Amino acid sequence: MQSQMFFRQKYGFHLRKLLLNNDCMTFGRNRGVAHIGSHLRMNNNNSAKKVKMNGNGESVIDNIRREYSDYKGGALQLTKDDTTGIADICINAFERRNALSGTMMSQLSDIITQLEQWEQGKAVIIHGSNGFFSSGGDLNTVRNIDNSDGGRRMALLMHDNLSRLQALPLLSVALIEGKALGGGAELTTACDFRVMSREAEIGFVHIKLGVTTGWGGGTRLVQMLGPCKALDVMMSGRLIKAAEALNIGLVQHVISDCDTNDSNCVLSKCHEWLNSYTRHNAATLRAIKGIVNSARWLPTDEALKKEVEYFASVWGGPAHQKALGSNIKHK
């Protein structure tokens, strides 16, 4: 709960401030950490006051969410298992290749809020319905925002959503079947892990549409792959098969022992793979995720201080005491 509140209260305000100032576009492997860290060091109360509000006391992000909820189509379906601590988010708009409508973008914000408040949670798996991950933004929604300001507002909303997804105290996994294209590919970059089925492909195809990444996927791709490989992936716009994605570090696991189009098998195998992490104590998992997020966004000296806090929060706790009693370190 401590790590959950830290990221929700501290990172939430500052990430929104960065987005509203367009500073998010300056993130990078080295400069970006220092840049965002300078904002994260600000006092929470001060930063809260700097979130832009409209005349009704509504934040810009909330205003965009309300507007986008009118762009109908499809749905995101959340299921949570308090026993296992694993949640599933299913992208369900198969007739449109699981494209994300404005309604679904707004729903994603609400779902992330639920996950931020889920004390039993350990991990979340995001996957598409009917063996297809997502083709990105829904065309009906896109046609309603076909100017620069409309594109900027969509980017602000999805930056906020995906930054909060990345900052969750839970492990997050994008399970890619079929294809993840455009904004769908960007969505996968906000997850801690990416898992692909054997036949799946992922494509940052934006260049073919005359645009760039807009939901933070380009920045995260550079952080994951480095500048040269990220340029190759984005400028070619090619579809990357599972074997290459694994080889370049874009995904962490490929499920190869399921029949083609057997989505139930793929999801089950993903749960099995994830169990190697989620079998551990929830508080410890959340603390480790907090350490990683601190190292990602804070200067080293502040991240080290946070690591001490997380360590102290689990030292002497139930899982630690049980391990000591079992002499588990020496087995």
TrEMBL record:
Its EC number(s): 4.1.1.94
Catalytic activity: (2S)-ethylmalonyl-CoA + H(+) = butanoyl-CoA + CO2; (S)-methylmalonyl-CoA + H(+) = propanoyl-CoA + CO2; (2R)-ethylmalonyl-CoA + H(+) = butanoyl-CoA + CO2
GO MF entries: methyl/ethyl malonyl-CoA decarboxylase activity
The keyword Amino-acid biosynthesis appears for this protein: no
Compartments, record wording: Cytoplasm, Cytosol
Cellular component annotations (GO), alphabetically ordered: cytosol
SUPFAM superfamilies: ClpP/crotonase (SSF52096)
UniProt record, GO biological process: fatty acid beta-oxidation
Keyword Cytoplasm appears in the UniProt entry: yes
Keywords from the named record: Cytoplasm, Lyase
Cited Pfam families: ECH_1 (PF00378)
Summary of the function given for this chain in its UniProt record: Decarboxylates ethylmalonyl-CoA, a potentially toxic metabolite, to form butyryl-CoA, suggesting it might be involved in metabolite proofreading. Acts preferentially on (S)-ethylmalonyl-CoA but also has some activity on the (R)-isomer. Also has methylmalonyl-CoA decarboxylase activity at lower level.
Family note: Belongs to the enoyl-CoA hydratase/isomerase family.
Protein name in UniProt: Ethylmalonyl-CoA decarboxylase
